[in-house]
Amino acid sequence: MIRWLCRIFVRPTLAWWPLRGPLSKMMPLVNLALRVVPRLRETECEHVDGGTWRAEFVRPRGAADSVAAILYLHGGAFLFCGLATHRRIVERLALRTGLPVLSVAYRHLPKGRLDESLADAAEAVRWLQTRGIAPDKVVCVGDSAGGHLAFALALNAPAAGLPRPAGVVGLSPWLDFDSVTKLGHRNARSDVFIPARRLSRVGMLCAGNGTEIDPVRSPVNGDLSCLPPVLIQCAEDEVLRCDAELMAERLSAAGVEHRLQIWQGQVHAFPVLGHVLPESSAALDEIATFTTVVLAGSANAA
What integer pLDDT is reported at residue 22 of this predicted model? Predict the structure, then answer.
């Protein structure tokens, strides 16, 4: 049913929706419409105003202060989605791990730039420091474009004056703005969610000059040897499987501990639907286990 709905409604809409002009300004309505979704009673939320960014600090109701946390960066092609669209996965991650989760609404295209989105993510880590949570006790989690930011944040931590995080989790992460390989892959047709050609246009907005993509902007081309342990989850038939497999290959070459999970019969960023699909719920369990393990390793290293 989910795959059918995505193929009939989501993919065609994403294929024609304008990236500029008056209609593009309606993208925030997606997040606004979902603000009516009630919160889970088992969690509590603190609203954070970071100036250029906003966030929700979600934790299990009545939980004591924690020295560790999850930083969640939502997907949406750097164009749409926000706190409301990803509230359920954030709440369920908090309940499964027992940790607070800081879900960040960073600056979007076209008003914001990719560098500004990354800067907002770094400032969110610094906000966690004010709550007694060190950067090396943070697990960065993101789906799709948010997965890009999770990896980019870890790669750029030294330049930002931050220790590397305890771990990185990418859920169908968009890690290579160069779409040549993706356009020629069989999944360009089988993906029921993402129109591959639209990735090329958005990638040019994020990291191009109108004619070519700057390869430095793609996390797959970074110095991966500095990364902490990594978990990547993707769907078997989605076009961003290309990015997941390429990153896993390069992590292996760099000697970085990692795990790539490819799930059959699922859609792009399916763990976000953890309250709908049993496989999505199982994927969240995998994320919770990974988080527990890497935080334990971080504590032992300290």
Answer: 46
Q: Which of 238, 258, 279, 280 is catalytic?
A: 238
CB 99 within 8 A of CB 290: no
pLDDT in tens, 120-134: 999 999 999 999 999
H helices of 98-224, in order, are 114-130, 145-155, 180-184, 187-190, 196-207
| DSSP-derived 3-state class of residue 103 | strand
Contact between residue 159 and residue 152 where contact means Cβ atoms under 8 Å apart: no
Q: Is the pLDDT of residue 189 over 90?
A: no
User: CA 267, CA 273: separation in Å to the nearest integer?
Assistant: 10
* 16 Cβ neighbours under 8 A, 6+ residues apart: none
- The order of strands in the sheet holding 101-105 is 43-49, 54-60, 101-105, 69-73, 138-143, 167-171, 230-235, 258-263
Q: Is 258 a catalytic residue?
A: no
Q: Which of 148, 268, 280, 298 is catalytic?
A: 268
**What distance in Å separates the CA atoms of residue 39 and residue 125, rounded to the nearest whole number?**
24
What CA–CA distance (Å, rounded) separates 271 from 84?
A: 16
Residue ranges covered by each domain of the chain:
24-301
Which DSSP category does 163 fall into? P
- Name the pairing type of β-strands 101-105 and 54-60: antiparallel
Active-site residue, selected from the candidate residues 56, 108, 117, 144: 144
Task: Give the global pTM.
Answer: 0.91
The answer to whether 224 and 168 have CB atoms below 8 angstroms apart is no
First and final C-alpha spacing in the chain: 47
| The CATH number of the domain covering residues in 24-301 | 3.40.50.1820
In the annotation, is 144 catalytic? yes
Reply yes or no on whether 238 is catalytic.
yes
